[in-house]
Amino acid sequence: MAEKIVLAYSGGLDTSVAIKWLAERYSAEIIALTLDVGGSRALERARQRALKAGASQALVVDAKDQFAKEYVWPALQSGAIYEGEYPLATALARPLIVWHQVKVALEVGAFAVAHGCTGKGNDQVRFDVNTAALAPHLKIIAPAREWGMSREQEIEYAKSHGVPLELGTRSSYSVDENLWGRSIEAGDLEDPWREPPEEAFAWTRPVKDAPEEPRYVEITFRQGIPVALDGEEMPGVLLIERLHQWAGEHGVGRVDHIENRLVGIKSREVYEAPAALVLHKAHKALEAMTLSKDQARMKERVAQEYADVVYNGLWFTQHRQDLDAYVQSTQRHVSGTVRVRLHKGAATVVGRRSDEALYQYQLATYDKADQFDHKASEGFIAIYGLPVRTQARIQGREGKGPGQRG
Ligand code: ARG
Predict the structure, then answer these.
(1) Final residue of a domain: which of 134, 160, 186?
(2) Residue 153 C-alpha to ligand 1 middle, in angstroms?
(3) Atom 12 in ligand 1: which residue has the minimum CA distance?
(4) Residue 389 backbone phi and psi in degrees, to 5
């Protein structure tokens, strides 16, 4: 019986050619695994193409729910947005793909797993390092990193080896899509001076075509997880898909990011992530109501660390588990509803309420309901300002000004 390799199969040219290339080079049986993590890929077509390319088995696994629950929600709760711009859609799905790939590899007794990443991107790191974390004994093969074929050579290879070519026009961009967002790179986007052309986008309308009238949406969170839109409870996947549509219609969700890859390259990537952008904003607004100042500040630091961990391929690490434990602990009281206005490319938080809010009207108000003890401030300021007053008296003020000594 031939040895087995489990290939993470996207349905594109690279991974289709990889099926044949791997089968020949390793005299192995290739099991193509395609994950449904949302987005609009034609999965049945991909499955058929894998079989035609010579895979012995082509599996499609629906992992949308798992993606939302185990990857997207924790990342949202943590506040992770890479370099303040990228909500990490592609980066979050990679460890999930690896998880399923390793599961299948162990079930069928494969000696190796393979993926179609090139040697320039972050994704190769995410595949390789996450695989190492889950199954350190498995061999990892990255054909596109090894074979040195140009796109034209790949097409030649496909033709001469009976790998079916996709008919129809292929966009000049490299696109990766899932439930949490769409990543678009290459082609004319490689000129950072050039405004991204409209055809790069698929989920969001240009602002000029967005409706004149705003749309308001109320997002309800329970312990940091969104559970309802406009009061209607729904499963996470549906909630994200609905928000994509609503926000996308109003031109919300586009990002144009010059990003620092883990492999040292600066690259220009364009993203469409309407739901992610709206949910991160709303979640943060609710935290502003329910977390103490210290918690909120510490969380900002953790958010950055969490984003790096996701981006840098370190999902299956104890470090991420530790960060998660902290983040989960902070979410105990992050429950309530946030009202967001979607209008002409902007998502703006315009209202928030929570039964567990630390915002207290009687403390904040300037009218007669005020319960704050104004007199107590005197003593507080006397002690708080004591070291400043002391230093000024003994050593003089810094700089020039009234009361300056010498
Ligand atoms: N730059 C993003 C990341 O490193 C996305 C990479 C994949 N992008 C693509 N258009 N294929 O996570």
Answers:
(1) 160
(2) 24
(3) 91
(4) -65, -40
| Containing structural domain, residue 51 | 3-160
- CATH at residue 68: 3.40.50.620
User: Relative to the CA of 267, which ligand 1 atom is closest?
Assistant: 1
CA distances from 337 to 66, 68, 84 (A): 24, 20, 24
Q: Find all residues with CB under 8 Å of 125, minimum gap 6, and list them.
A: 262, 263, 312, 313
Same domain, 214 and 153: no
Domain identity same for 115 and 218: no
- The token pair at 344 is 């002409």
Domain count across the chain: 3
In a domain, 228, yes or no: yes
Q: How far away, in angstroms, is 58 Cα from ligand 1 center? A: 25
**CA-CA distance, 265 to 104, in Å (whole number)?**
33
Residues 20 and 144 in one domain: yes
Instruction: Given the residues 123, 176, 205, 354, select the one marked as catalytic.
Output: 123
Chunk the chain into consecutive blocks of 10 residues (it has 406) and report each block's average pLDDT, rounded to whole numbers: 94 96 98 94 92 98 98 98 98 98 98 97 98 98 96 95 79 93 96 98 98 98 98 98 98 98 98 98 98 98 98 98 98 98 98 98 96 97 97 83 61
Residue type, 329: S
311 CA closest ligand 1 atom index: 12
Contact 117, 142 (CB under 8 A): yes
**257 and 336 both lie in a single domain:** yes
Q: Which residues line ligand 1 (CB under 6 A)?
A: 90-91, 122-123, 174-176, 183-185, 259, 269
Q: In Å, how far from its chain's centre is CA 224?
A: 16
20 in the same domain as 156: yes
Ligand 1 test: best mutation among 176, 265, 314, most atoms within 8 Å of CB?
176
Decide if 171 is catalytic. Answer: no
Q: How far is the CA of 179 from the centre of ligand 1 (A)?
A: 14
Q: Is 120 a domain residue?
A: yes
